[in-house]
Amino acid sequence: MKPPIIVVLNQVSVATARQLMTALPGSQLYGLVDRTIDVDVSFTNFGDTLRQLYRDGVPIVGLCAAGILIRTLAPILSNTKTEPPVIAIAADGSAVVPLLGGMTGVNDLAEQIAAALNIRPAITTAGKILFNTVLPDPPAGYRIANPEHVKAFIADLIGGASVSLDGDAPWLTASNLTFCTDGKRTITVTNQAIAGSLEQLVYHPTSLVISIDRPTQFNVARWIEVMIDRFDTANLALAVVACIVIPKTLAGAAIIGIGKSLNLPIRLVDSVEWSQDLTVINQDENLTILSATQPIDPNSIGQPQGKLTVVGTGPGSKQWMSPQVRATILAATDLVGYHTYLDLVKDLSVGKECHGSDNRVELDRSRLALDLAASGKNVVVVSSGDPGIFAMAAAVLEVLDKENKPEWQSIDLQINPGISAMQAAAAEIGAPLGHDFCAISLSDILKPWEVVAARIASAAEADFAIAFYNPISSQRSWQLTAAKEILLKSRSSTTPVILARNLGRSGQEVQVITLGELAPESADMRTVILIGSSQTRLIPRADGSYLVYTPRSY
Ligand code: SAH
After folding, report:
1. Model pTM?
2. CA of 472 to the centre of ligand 1 (A)
3. Are residues 446 and 410 in the same domain?
4. Domain count, the chain
5. Which one of 64, 92, 242, 499 is most buried, counting C-beta atoms within 10 A?
6. Which residue range(s) make up the domain with 521?
7. Mean pLDDT computed over every residue of the chain
């Protein structure tokens, strides 16, 4: 379960919140702006904030009336198997009421909170009250095989059906369920592949590990076939696998892909040494299956596979950040990026290690991100706009390509796209990129000016609309004028030009001028410039403004 967010609406609740937060490691305090101080994150809109947290799967603990939480979340209530726990707590800490998330741990969370407040939680889940255990949500080390049957199964038990226990699980024996020898219902705890039914609830203890300890030529699909085949032959359920263990030196893309496809954690080890609690039960030249008598905690073996995602947050405001990028940032342990960009995602970064750096050190930043990921962290490199457009994704890949450290092999590397400045600029003014276009960076720091000049000339001759990134900076002032002169050789001085500055940020300005009017003062390093093609047209509007577009056909 992710650490919960505690939400308070007034300063009186802050003390209670802080008290219960001592029992909830990693939790953060969200407070209503202007009503609370000393909180981790200030929010302005209660409804939007809460609904976003719920959609992000973050457990919510509200120090407010249950009704407010219910009304706020009711319109978006979703799947009970995946929704996050939601708990209401009286502002003075006198009542703890689990509202949602019976299948995802709300009752345990409520008990934890109530213990910190020295009270009893108001638990309403019938199974929990009667049996003192939550059958849909078994403790760590057990996976339920047939969650689709659990509701009816519990209803039958509440209705008085007798139940037997087949297999061994201390959490079931310690519950208030009364087991008999010949029950009408059975709870089976087994590593065998049994589907379960309305009469039989099946739990798999995660008591096996798969070890792959020699190099392989298999691709992901072949590996999965091999594994499924092996488990089928032994009639073992894949759900009993706690994790797949691989030496760091062997952890290439294929092996990493298996974990993802089978939804099993991968653990990386320096060398394979097994404790005496594990016995080999099945082995061939490809893999070894080891078994323990008790469920295995994957976190006790080696380190997790590291993850590195390069995300683009869009040009500025939050509304341009994709839900995927938001979720990726929320799940990260470490954020790497230019200080200014990290500041833009401040409210998502509480509790994370932030490695801010100067704008000019892209390659150092990439190395740092790769090294952190190789050590098992979940690292996000934060870029503005789209990460693949004049930004960090290429920098990370360049370092990976040229320096190629063996320990970087095992990293799960992803890129999450974002809206680029040229798209945001175009959308603000109409559709100037509606036909063929290209993007050119006017910076000659990473490439010689001759290359830039030749590209501008070719693009102008080919009649592309052009987006100019990095048009000017304090060290580079003449390039924009040089670019304009090249353009004027094959494009009219009346060509529409869009200057878009600070898109999505405070001080946003979008202006239409002509190519003849373009001057160095027109732009700064926070401006993206769109140059129309010979076909780009202006539509005057009643208020004196213009829409700009490039038709789709000639
Ligand atoms: N990856 C970014 C581009 C980074 S290069 C993207 O896809 O948008 C930096 C240049 O992008 C700036 O010099 C400017 O030309 C443009 N840019 C980035 N953010 C901008 C914004 N909010 N408003 C206008 N231009 C922006």
Report:
1. 0.77
2. 12
3. no
4. 5
5. 242
6. 422-549
7. 91
Report CA(433)–ligand 1 centroid distance (Å).
16
Q: How much distance in Å is there from the Cα of 315 to the middle of ligand 1? A: 6
- For residue range 94-150, list pLDDT tens digits in order: 999 999 998 888 988 999 999 989 999 998 887 777 888 888 889 889 999 999 999
Closest to 73 in 3D by CA, of 95, 89, 91, 88: 88
Probe residue for ligand 1, chosen from 321, 322, 343, 384 as the CB with the greatest number of ligand atoms within 8 Å: 384
Q: Which of 333, 332, 273 is nearest to 301 (CA)?
A: 273
Assess whether 499 and 468 both reside in one domain: yes
The region that residue 203 occupies, defined by phi over 0 for left and psi between -120 and 50 for alpha, beta otherwise, is beta
Taking the C-alpha atoms of residue 119 and residue 139, their distance in angstroms, rounded to an integer, is: 23
Ligand 1 atom with least separation from CA of 504: 22
Concatenating the DSSP letter of every residue in 463-482 gives T-EEEEES--BTTB-SHHHH
pLDDT of the residue at 253 = 63
Segment 329-345 shows an average pLDDT of 90
pLDDT at res. 215: 73
Q: Find the largest Cα–Cα distance for the chain.
A: 93
CA–CA dist 252, 113 (Å, integer): 42
Higher pLDDT, 221 or 374: 374
Question: Which residues have CB under 6 Å of ligand 1?
Answer: 315-316, 383-386, 389-391, 420-421, 469-471, 500-505, 525-528
* Amino acid making up residue 472: I
Q: Which amino acid is at 533?
A: S
